[in-house]
User: Which sequence fits this backbone?
């Protein structure tokens, strides 16, 4: 994830990937809502799209935790670089 040769560039890649995941979740939820609206209530397709919406909701709810893990990784990355350059 963090290539020491890339430096800050590797961190911007991680930020872009996080934004892409968030946008994909939003678009996926919109598509599933649209599909579900055209289905018969309690039909197979309706229930399948409901399960998909439930899964996307669960993942979206945990995006804050995922962001915290990414930030923590960035902090550890900079701390590691600082300790390595300080010793050398």
Assistant:
């Amino acid at each position: 994830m963090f290539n020491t040769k890339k430096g800050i560039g590797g961190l911007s890649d991680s930020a872009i990937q996080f934004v892409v995941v968030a946008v994909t979740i939003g678009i996926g939820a919109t598509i599933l809502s649209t599909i579900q609206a055209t289905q018969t209530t309690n039909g197979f397709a309706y229930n399948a799209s409901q399960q998909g919406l439930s899964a996307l909701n669960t993942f979206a709810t945990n995006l804050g935790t995922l962001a915290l893990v990414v930030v923590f990784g960035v902090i550890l990355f900079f701390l590691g670089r600082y300790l390595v350059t300080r010793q050398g």
In short: The chain has a mean pLDDT of 84. The helical segments are 8-37, 44-61, 63-87. Residues 8-87 form one domain.
